[in-house]
Amino acid sequence: MTELESLETAAEHERILREIESTDTACIGPTLRSVYDGEEHGRFMEKLEARIRNHDREIEKMCNFHYQGFVDSITELLKVRGEAQKLKNQVTDTNRKLQNEGKELIIAMEELKQCRLQQRNISATVDKLTLCLPVLEMYSKLREQMKSKRHYPALKTLEHLEHTYLPQVSHYRFCKIMVDNIPKLREEIKEVSMSDLKDFLESIRKHSDKIGETAMKQAQQQRNLDNIVSQHPRISGGKKSKREFCASSDLEVKNTSPMSEQDSGILDVEDEDEDEEVPGAQDLVDFSPVYRCLHIYSVLGARETFESYYRKQRRKQARLVLQPPSNMHETLDGYRKYFNQIVGFFVVEDHILHTTQGLVNRAYLDELWEMALSKTIAALRTHSSYCSDPSLVLDLKNLIVLFADTLQGYGFPVNQLFDMLLEIQDQYSETLLKKWSGVFRNILDSDNYSPIPVSNEELYKKIVGQFPFQDAELEKQPFPKKFPFSEFVPKVYNQIKEFIYACLKFSEDLHLSSTEVDDMIRKSTNLLLTRTLSNCLQNVIKRKNVGLTELVQIIINTTHLEKSCKFLEEFITNITNVLPETVHTTKLYGTTTFKDARHAAEEEIYTNLNQKIDQFLQLADYDWMAPEPGSRASDYLVDLIGFLRSTFAVFTHLPRSPLVSGLTRCPFSLQGKVAQTACMSACKHLSTSLLQLLLEAEVRQLTLGALQQFNLDVEECEQFARSGPVPGFQGDTLQLAFIDLRQV
């Protein structure tokens, strides 16, 4: 029984081994599982080991059998590799030799290819050039003819080229370009024929300032001649009129033989002396290029084109001429050159208008003049506004007048220029006011504010000659003596007259009536008095370091200047010949100006005195609880009364100035009146300030001794009022300033 089981087990193990040998590795799991599930897996392992040893022996036998063949094969392969390497080296050497030998052949073949290509190209080029050269030769001939200004042969050559030669080579691009350019070439021929005109236009553009300068010299000479004739009876004979002169010069131009087409522009003219005859502006210009070009275009049937081109170019030149340089306002020469160019431009156009038929017409010229007038006026308004020198503004005005007179002589309306001059007159007045503001400041700053001393008759007459002053009592006094006013009075008076003269200079040659000139001068003088001089006086009065003596002297000075206004009225009347009774005559406002300055000085005196009083009162230190009073008034009040006495004493030492000028005098002086008002104001201010000290909220109680001390101070003030620090008060008028304080 046991033997049977062992046989079955051995058979089963044999089956499993065969299955392991023949089964795929991935499916061997179940087979091995069956081995481990049985109880004889030890024996199975022995059988498996035995089977592995059998297979190893078989493998060893097989390897021993085939090993010699393997070794022989490896030996053969090594031999083959060596031979293959030799063969590779031979092939490489052969290829290198073949490449080196073939390079020269390739180069030769490329050169042969290029030569054959060039040969074909040359042959084709020769064929094409045979057709194109005549076309190019004709085109070159056309250019030469155009360059030499042979206009008619050039047109004929262009016609032959267009209809005979170009159709043969029309498929070439340059020929198509030529065909497209034929209309342009025709236009170019027209433009080339206009080269003389361009030279002429360029020349007159460059020399228009010389033409204008000559024309303005003529106008200046004519004006000088008119002035001489207006002063002396005219003798028979004389110069030609400007228009006659132009006509004669036009005739001379037309009769001259034609010049070469390259000659055009301005004839050389040397500068003439003032005493010699100034050549006519038209004599400086050769107009023959314009006449020739106009004739050529008329023959070609393109007169309208020529007229349009000429007018267009002249409009462009007009815009350039009318464009002022940015620094024109700096010097008078800048304005002069600007005007010369404008005059030169319109002198040429006026000549063309009268010597050709229709090249320019009156409507075209009027349009140009309107544009020029508006741009010129705008430029002058802009640049003249930068002028701060009255002399330059005055010179500019004279130059504008000459500019207007020159163009008016050629028939151009210039009323707007004279209207613009009235605007510049306002600016001139402003520059004068600025200049005189500095003059007045210098006079007021350099004045010593002391009455003018005179030691002899000569000096006395000199001052009286400078300023209209009459005082019978002063004349009777022996030398040395003093005028009541300081030096700035005659200086300011004379500067006002100089200002009036400066205003009068601007009104010359403006074609204004005497009434308009008078009105202009009076308005400017009023501005000088009410604004410039008034501001200068106010600045002096408001200065911090001005003293009471200076303020009193200013009051005296302004009073005398106020009385001199009637003499300024007479002065203006004499130079304008307009009676002051005329309805539209402007009155001078000097009286108001000097009154305002005088009142400001008086107020400044009162303010300064009150400030000084306040400074002294700040030193007051009352002991309201003092048991006994002092033996005298407080020290600060004694010092204050001393200051007031010395201050009002200064008024009495000033020269007495009557309240009215002339032989009649008032019983009291001007400074006496100011002193009375100042004294009353100071006493009232002192009384009010002391009362405020007594009634301050901090003073809650006071002793009889403190009140008696305060009473001593009040008595000191009343004593000052009774002493009459300023003469002229009636009775106890000054003491009434302290009545309220006494009652309290």
From TrEMBL:
InterPro entries: EXOC6/Sec15, EXOC6/Sec15_C, EXOC6/Sec15_C_dom1, EXOC6_Sec15_N, EXOC6PINT-1/Sec15/Tip20_C_dom2
Domain of life: Eukaryota
GO biological process, one term: intracellular protein transport
Coiled coil listed as a keyword: yes
GO CC aspect terms: exocyst; plasma membrane
Pfam family, one: Sec15_C
Residue span, Exocyst complex subunit EXOC6/Sec15 C-terminal domain: 416-744
Keywords from the named record: Coiled coil, Exocytosis, Transport
Limits of the Exocyst complex component EXOC6/Sec15 N-terminal domain: 47-216
Gene3D superfamilies linked: Dsl1p vesicle tethering complex, Tip20p subunit, domain D, Exocyst complex subunit Sec15 C-terminal domain, N-terminal subdomain
Keyword Transcription set for record: no
Coiled-coil ranges (or none): 45-115
PANTHER family the record matches: EXOCYST COMPLEX COMPONENT 6B, SEC15
Family of the protein in this entry: Belongs to the SEC15 family.
Record's protein name: EXC6B protein
